[in-house]
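--- STAGE predict ---
source: upstream dedup step, 1 unique chain passed
mode: sequence only
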Amino acid sequence: MAAPLALLALLIELVAGYPDWIAKSIGHPVTWMGRLIGFLDTRLNHEGAEPESRRRAGAIALFLLLLIVGTIAFVVETAFLLLPLGLIVVGLLCSTLIAQRSLYMHVANVADALDSGDLIKARAAVAHIVGRDTGDLDEAGVARAAIESLSENFSDGVVSPVFWICLAGLTGGALYKAINTADSMIGHRNERYESFGKSAAQLDDLVNLPGARLSALLIVAASALGGGASAGGAWQAMTRDAAKHASPNAGYPEAAMAGALGLSLGGPHAYDGVETDAAWLGDGRREAKASDVQAALAVYGRADGLLIAIVFALAVFTAIL
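--- STAGE serialize ---
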């Protein structure tokens, strides 16, 4: 188990994040993976091919992506861990796969814009973290979108990569991030990706299964620590409404957060002008506001603290063995 590595990565990312000057100079591991996925998409996803042929091509693309990313990560990790301070270097690399700091900052920007009454700025801020259309969202729509994104990305961007780093180090975290990035780029149900991206979408559902449920439980536990959130409401909404979500995973943290804050999240929204009649999660208020986004950030902060505490305990346990 690589819990010490995961703990180091969490602490580094919490303190430093991924500096903008590094992103501007060399990019980010996710963007590198994205370029590879785009290359494979261009070369293998042929328009006009039969659906089954495109499905096989998508599976081959996913295999090549994981082979390349996994091999590079394994070689780098193995080589650096042979060096005296190699653990710190690998921890730094693992920290790039976690987004606890940047997630908080992006959602806080939405809360600040709403709190100042600048709806246009709030729409622009939330557009950075959601895929839905944001141009016509009212204050409640922006607030709900921010809280939903915070909840889902706590799973996808924090808990799940940490889970896989704990299990398989840098290699496990990198493979998880490659799958998650592939799903976000080609796992769509549209004409181009319905068949080609099917393997990526199915594998992403599988690798996110443990993280989504753990993130929901962390939200429930964080709600029990005070701050006005309801642990009972979080548990009730999660167990009742999580399965209503179109995703087999996203509904767990979103429903838990809805119940914790006494809100209803989800509901109809539009992607590229197409209205989606999604289910409502939670049975509370739909008129969310800036204070609800701030309350969600407080729950998120406590849940992230609990995650760090769990990984710390695992790291200590590993060291004792």
